[in-house]
Recover the amino acids of this structure.
DNA sequence: CATTGCAGTCTACAATTGTCAACTGTGTAT
DNA sequence: ATACACAGTTGACAATTGTAGACTGCAATG
């Protein structure tokens, strides 16, 4: 929730982060490049820039191992929590409840979602 | 939820939108300027630029009335819904339920929030 | 009617973001 | 030992964003 983290990951960078998050282990650029080249159609140069920028802003750690291996310094959960908090601050007057209420009132949730959430709320507390 | 809207309102622009949303009626720049100059410490020029950009991107309508009056073309609800959908797509695999689950599991909600939500979920269905 | 203040428009400029090419050094294959 | 491929670095360039000055014309005020 603290907004002084090395967050502020941009759209393209987020794609790199997702790859690393889902990999679950440090990856060499080779692999990052292959995956994103295919998935996004980006040139190797583009991918290398994104990885570098993420390292610069501290969102990715690079560890020397013959060739560098890259891994996130912030988890997907943490980042999602930060971005969600940011949204709540900016658009829901800082109230998470307002956000949920908006989802419930819009058609953002299916019946199944609602059922599952009801279940969750029952368990909580 | 459709992302082809004239959305993508930036941080500074959002402050202008909020002012207009909360005003609930078309405002002349004079008023926008006064409020934001005080609230944000921005120069008049800055505020005029932001308003112009919002008009350009179609988020604000300008109506001639001796001097121009400005009003949003998209409601706060609509924009919030769009931005929330965007977040859900980008970080919660398109599942609103995942977002809510994350809020429940994190400490994003107070006990009071939880109570009120439980109430909401009871009524829904 | 002349003055003044400010709305509206144009221009500007640095920082960030999306994309990528060029260069450099080194590990791997021949 | 040599060559090749590619990781890592540097630089680049257009679009967007944050912030603001300058100019122009109208509208209110004396």
């Amino acid at each position: 929730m603290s907004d002084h983290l090395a967050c502020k990951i941009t759209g393209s960078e987020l794609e790199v982060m997702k790859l690393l998050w889902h990999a679950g282990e440090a990856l060499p650029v080779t692999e990052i490049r292959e995956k994103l080249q295919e998935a996004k159609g980006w040139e190797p140069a583009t991918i290398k820039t994104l990885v570098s920028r993420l390292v610069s802003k501290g969102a990715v750690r690079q560890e020397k191992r013959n060739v560098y291996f890259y891994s996130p310094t912030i988890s997907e959960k943490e980042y999602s929590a930060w971005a969600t908090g940011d949204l709540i601050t900016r658009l829901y007057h800082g109230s998470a409840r307002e956000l949920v209420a908006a989802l419930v009132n819009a058609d953002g949730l299916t019946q199944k979602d609602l059922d599952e959430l009801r279940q969750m709320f029952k368990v909580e507390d």
Observations:
- The mean pLDDT of chain A is 85.
